[in-house]
Each structure stands twice: as structure tokens, then as C-alpha cells.
């Protein structure tokens, strides 16, 4: 096993205009004057547990605000949960549409900085440049400032930089949705090769068809909760029908589909096993727990 997520909980305090509207007028005016507004507690992820295995490509689907991106950031170690743990066999690499690339610098300079940030030496970063340019297919534009790139060019470059490190665990947050068809074919081929080498890919997408085509397994999240975890084909079909019902103005029918999926799901209980004489598992530099795959064990309980 490559990733074990154990009972993750994430909550945020978010400013609320609705809460402000319900306050008495003097208090509302006073808070506005000092720049302090009432907030509400939003549950981003609620008790999610899952296990990923070598060679799997796992899609995450759900409406906006369902917790998909937050879960990826937790797995990547970029955000700490209020409760729960994440253990990984190697450092996960997160590739998102907002990945940090400096617009004033050239593509080549961004490649160099990105490779260094992933732990490459300066010599390794220079050696990786031709391969990155080839995969991104941006040619001479690699020497132009990033601010001149289209969204598709930037997406291709981000993906190529992430793949240069040959990560064993790759987390993709909508980053492939801005590329053209040829790029999607190349990126799929590269991810397939990665999985054949016992890698693991997590892919967030709003398009159920993308999840069905790119992934072997899928997880449906709703308001921070795991609805169902199954084959990509089955989960994508269920989620597509649910989203279609909502779009057609049939919320009751959509709610029935959601309840049915919840009822057929299962809870995952993750048990971590350490060899005798070991202490707590080591930590990644990014804060995620790290251990070896053979030390992870999971049991699956049918939800009632």
C-alpha cells in the first residue's frame, strides 16, 4: 500500500454574511467598523479514511465544496487536519492548476526552480530540462516569460515538471482539464507508465467521463464525507446521474440517488502495524507521515 488516510477531519471558520444579517443592528455596525465579521464553522472533510495501493489511479468526484482539493492537500502534507493521520510510502507530489509558477520568469527558469523545490540538484535540474520541454511540447516558448503562456501551455509545463521527479505518488487537482487532446494523450501515457512501475495517482475532476477514462477506481465525496468507493465506471455513472438530476432541477430525485449511494458504501478502518522496537513513523519534510507499504494494513467494514 502506498497511502493510508485514517479518519481525517478538517474544519474552517469562514466569514458569513448570513450570520451578520441575523445580528442586531448596533452590533453589526460595530463589527463592520472594526473589520470583524461573524463566522461559521464549515466542515471540509469529515471522517474520511481510505487506502491506496501501488498501481492504482484513483479519481475523486463531487460537487464544489465537497472536500476533494482539501483532501489532496492533506495527503500532500500541505495542510494539517484537525484530527486523523496520513501515512505514505514516499513524498506525494501535488500538481494543481494554481501550482506556483512565477509569471515574470521564463519557462526554463521556472523549470529550474521547480526541480530544485522537488529536491533535485542543480545538475539534475539542468539535465531534466530537455525531457520537460519535450513532454510539455512548448518548443522555443520555454525561453519566454510565463506571463505570455496560454493556460494550456502553463498546464502542460506544470505536469512535465511534476513528472520529471518520477514521483511514486502523484496528486492531480484539475490540472489536466486545461490541456488539449494531444496533451491529454501524452499525460495519460506518462501516468500509465508510472502506474506500471507501481506508482499511485489521485485525480480530481468535475468531469465524470474523465474519471471513467483515466482511473481504475473512484471515490465520491459529498460535503466532506465519503459517499462511495468503487470502480471508476460504477462511481462515475452514479455521480453523473446525480449531477444530471440536480442540473435538471430535480433535487429530490438527486437526494434519493445520494442516499442510495451512501447506503451501499462501506467504512474503512485503517490499522497501522509497526515492527517490534520501532517508534512513531518518520515524518516527511512536508509534514505527512511516512512509513513503508508493507507496514500498512486496512480492514473494510460494510456500512449499515
UniProtKB/TrEMBL annotation:
<dbReference type="InterPro" id="IPR003439">
    <property type="entry name" value="ABC_transporter-like_ATP-bd"/>
</dbReference>
<dbReference type="GO" id="GO:0005524">
    <property type="term" value="F:ATP binding"/>
</dbReference>
<keyword id="KW-0067">ATP-binding</keyword>
<dbReference type="Pfam" id="PF00005">
    <property type="entry name" value="ABC_tran"/>
</dbReference>
<comment type="similarity">
    <text>Belongs to the ABC transporter superfamily.</text>
</comment>
<keyword id="KW-0813">Transport</keyword>
<dbReference type="InterPro" id="IPR027417">
    <property type="entry name" value="P-loop_NTPase"/>
</dbReference>
<dbReference type="InterPro" id="IPR003593">
    <property type="entry name" value="AAA+_ATPase"/>
</dbReference>
<dbReference type="InterPro" id="IPR015860">
    <property type="entry name" value="ABC_transpr_TagH-like"/>
</dbReference>
<protein>
    <submittedName>
        <fullName>Sugar ABC transporter ATPase</fullName>
    </submittedName>
</protein>
<keyword id="KW-0547">Nucleotide-binding</keyword>
<dbReference type="GO" id="GO:0016887">
    <property type="term" value="F:ATP hydrolysis activity"/>
</dbReference>
<dbReference type="InterPro" id="IPR017871">
    <property type="entry name" value="ABC_transporter-like_CS"/>
</dbReference>
<feature type="compositionally biased region" description="Polar residues">
    <location>
        <begin position="288"/>
        <end position="304"/>
    </location>
</feature>
<dbReference type="GO" id="GO:0016020">
    <property type="term" value="C:membrane"/>
</dbReference>
<feature type="domain" description="ABC transporter">
    <location>
        <begin position="24"/>
        <end position="248"/>
    </location>
</feature>
<dbReference type="InterPro" id="IPR050683">
    <property type="entry name" value="Bact_Polysacc_Export_ATP-bd"/>
</dbReference>
<feature type="region of interest" description="Disordered">
    <location>
        <begin position="276"/>
        <end position="304"/>
    </location>
</feature>
<dbReference type="GO" id="GO:0140359">
    <property type="term" value="F:ABC-type transporter activity"/>
</dbReference>
